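Assess this one:
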Amino acid sequence: MKKILFVCMGNICRSAAAEAVMKKLIYNQNLNKEYFIDSAGTINLHKGEKADSRMIFHSSKRGYDITSISRQIENKDYLEFDKIVVMDQQNYNDVINKCPDKKFEDKIINISDFFTKHNDKKVPDPYYGEGKDFEYVLDLLEDACQELLAKLVNHDI
């Protein structure tokens, strides 16, 4: 079973939504037994909390069910997960800096590397934004997760 961890700063908007998007894609392709998907944050500010209510609302309009509870990335995650997918450069830097062993660094990848319909270099944090910002994040995540899953299924990454 392949294990994928999505990471953003607080694990209440972007990574929680990415987890839900990827889980639905996997479910729709009947790949549930082949992949385990989770999410985490680089900080523990929201530890134990549900995702941001605005992200839950906008995600549910698209048929995504965000059930994750915020947690901070831990040392064991670097060992247990096959890929650690970050939302922006700051997340990448934070995840690299927390990495307990250099041998795990090749597992850490930027979600923007999987955009096929967008030229963005990150998934922007919508926390201080409006509804349109949450919708745009979902647009980016749908784009990237489709490509990421295709590459995983084809063993391209």
Summary: The CA atoms of residues 46 and 70 lie 6 Å apart. The helical segments are 14-28, 53-61, 75-80, 89-98, 131-153. The chain has one domain: 2-153. The mean pLDDT is 97.
